[in-house]
């Protein structure tokens, strides 16, 4: 604040010069005061300058859409779809349009796997990318050989990229050309798609709006709005049905409705259709066959809980579902059965962690999908700080049927003392993989024999994942355990979203566990050290010829106890499962 005993003004700085001898000894010190007119800096842009052409291109893509922060990821998708990557100049221009710092936009764009952010002087990726799933079911079906063969077939004009589960495990191995999936993929089929430039998926056959109305659709919703049912009665029916959250957490649906409606409005509904758990594809199945059934469930929930707006969050791999939903939402809005709440359809960008409810809410708000610390819970402080009812698609799919048929109809289903129906996504070494609607509590052996046509020829049942990569691994000797909520915990596993992956005596539980851990490492959001570092360290230790069991357990305990969300907390399950049930593979 002073120079040679004199006070300095706010626009003065002191520069100190120190001269050193050859031996780095100080020879002299001198100081001088320098005046800087900071007023000349006012009004001048700092940091990256906006490229006028890039700004014009971004404005044309955005059109008249609001420059609202929660639409940032949607806007990034527009640029990525148009140019196949995100150039730095477009990111800066987008930041200018949204009145955000470029660093904010860069940090969001680089968080999500489906955005290719290209900085200055970096080479853009080819215009066409072929993505090959390398998760467990596809790995068992030969994904590694497929990747190797495709690398040989394509030159630098086509990028071959290994990716985690794309939600089509019953058709393993799967490649995706552009946005068009290639089921039961082989090099010839994939190459043919690229030569034809067949990159956009076609719509499956499904029950559209008119067909759904003809079959009695939206009548339950109409009866609610017209006063033929009371909200309290509907919630009580759901409670009595024991319908639980079918995204994996299993929280009672009716209780959740009751909790959210007690908080002061406005309230919101967020529907999680970001099923990214390896082995899970049931939500896609329901969307591609009967989309209005879950939409009617949404509308009934809004009526009962007092909700004004719905946000549908769809995983980016489901390009056909995006087109389908846009089409059917338009039909619903053009001919509404009753007054509708406002419905928003938002597109994920490739982040498994956004399957966690608070991470999904962060993503809908246009941010990085990082789980929030709780409390407060999303039921009270959720999307945009409002009380939020968060549900998985399948949970809402059952609402209409339960209200039409009664709670007793749903609870009368089940086996081995369990109640209800479950949609099992079954993949792996069975003759008939796919979504199988079966009684809750069915055992995996019953599921294989009665619904999946048995094991593939030449394969003997060896083990299974009852709930995807995070649900742990069980041996065939525990194939008679009922599959439902609360039945697998004593064995160190859980059913989660009912993604059942069957493997045989020709597979290695250890290798599959390593594959699962590499998936967790890839998908960790990086927010907490136990998960970010622990998953990577665990994968390295698991790839060693001999496992250090004590060190792995110490690491598992740290991840389980200190991770913020379920990704890190469940990551140790495959490790412990192999140690407990497949020790012969570790000798």
Report on this structure.
It contains 24 helices and 19 strands. It has about 575 residues and is α/β, with parallel strands linked by helices. The strands form 6 sheets. The chain has a 5-stranded mixed beta sheet. Strands 8-7-9-10 form a 4-stranded mixed beta sheet, covered by helices on one side. The protein has a 4-stranded parallel beta sheet with strand order 13-12-11-14, sandwiched between helices. Helix 21 packs antiparallel against helix 22 (about 550-560). The longest helix has 16 residues, at about 320-335.
Secondary structure elements and pairings:
Blueprint: E1 2-3, E2 6-7, E3 12-20, E4 26-35, H1 52-62, H2 72-83, E5 86-87, H3 88-98, H4 102-111, E6 117-118, E7 128-133, H5 136-140, H6 143-153, E8 158-163, E9 175-177, E10 180-182, H7 187-195, H8 209-214, H9 219-225, H10 231-241, H11 253-261, E11 267-273, H12 282-287, H13 291-305, E12 307-314, H14 319-334, E13 342-347, H15 357-364, E14 388-392, H16 393-397, H17 399-405, H18 407-411, E15 421-428, E16 434-439, H19 444-450, E17 461-465, E18 474-475, E19 499-504, H20 509-523, H21 529-542, H22 549-562, H23 566-570, H24 573-581
Parallel strand pairs: 5-6, 7-8, 11-12, 11-14, 12-13, 15-19
Antiparallel strand pairs: 1-2, 3-4, 7-9, 9-10, 15-16, 17-18, 17-19
Helix pairs in contact: 1-3, 2-3, 3-4, 9-13, 10-11, 20-21, 21-22, 22-24
